[in-house]
Amino acid sequence: MHVSSSSSNIRPAISCLPSVGEPKPPMIYDGSKVTRLAVMGGSYGNVPALTACIEHARSIGCDGLAFIGDATGCCGHSDETIALIREHFQYLVAGNYEQKAAANEEDCGCNYTNDEDNHYGGIAHVWAMKSLSDENRKWLGIWPDLAHLETRAGRILLCHGSPAQTNEFLYESELDDTRLNHWLDQHEAVGFVCGHSGFTWTRELGKRFAGNCGVCGKPDHDHDAAVHYASIDLTTPTPVANIERVEYDHLAWADQLDAEGVDDVFTIPVRNGVWTCGLLSMPATERVLRPRPNGWLRNVLKASV
What we know:
The protein is α/β, with parallel strands linked by helices. The chain is built from 9 helices and 11 strands. Helix 2 links the parallel strand 3 (64-67) and strand 4.
């Protein structure tokens, strides 16, 4: 899929701080014919999981697919993953992995606060670069940092971490409705979808919404090996992000990655849905290993008051 860099498709003024390099203005995408949108991110080179999510999206009637960053990562298989994205996704936003790959830098730019998490993030990125061609690396460099998808339901804002910063983590336990509404006002949007943290959430904001689509290459630390993405029905007066759960043959994939020499710190979560790294940089409330249905954390926080 080609990403246009024509000046007619670029909106000036508002920008998102990337993990490296200079900010780019938001890309404008025409989604006027889309009736149901799928938003995915964080495939991390997990080819069968991404394939399963694409097939699932098509099966529920998604006629527009957006990928919001971190295509490559700990699983390797970077060129295979990029080939799927080129074929199936009309709308693209760069994550920190794309930005760092384009800059040919070896750290992941994940913005972890813990040294161990940063260490393993770097290992994942270096591994991903081994299977990424120069042609694809350069292509990742033209992905926008932020996008405005103009739909029949209004503007959908697409970002990787937050609308302000590519590698900012928006955790449910730290959500601020005032800040979410500010971003929607700033971008004149009816909703926005982010990723990066790996944990799904949705938040209704009057007739608007915000949501995290989770990641389609890794489970969300709940003892369930399934992966996730978000779908949005654009035919309703008030669009809402729904979280979709997708199963795939995770055990066969984990066996293949083990045989290819991938560190088991990355294959253990694929097998059993339990994270082994990335946890120490997140709020303590969210490190808990437990099922994560929509709204679970808000209910926990209310009960503790």
